[in-house]
Design a protein that fits this description.
The chain is of the alpha+beta class and 74 residues long. It is built from three helices and two strands.
Length: 74
Amino acid sequence: AALAAFADIDGRLDGESNRQVVFTIPFAVGFEAIEKRLAIVMSNCPGADWMYGNVYDENQKPLSWWAALSLRNS
């Protein structure tokens, strides 16, 4: 079910175990589209949580790599 939530935005399942799944989702779809789909998936998984794997540093500060990409693509 989780994979279907990301199919229309070219998300792909990179790995899974009995306790986690890892997706790669293109930046171009935007954080709002990603978070909207994650909210839907999480509503069907009580007690589950999600996180970005390359958006924040170890101190939870945004890495901001997307700012440069956004400027180049506009």
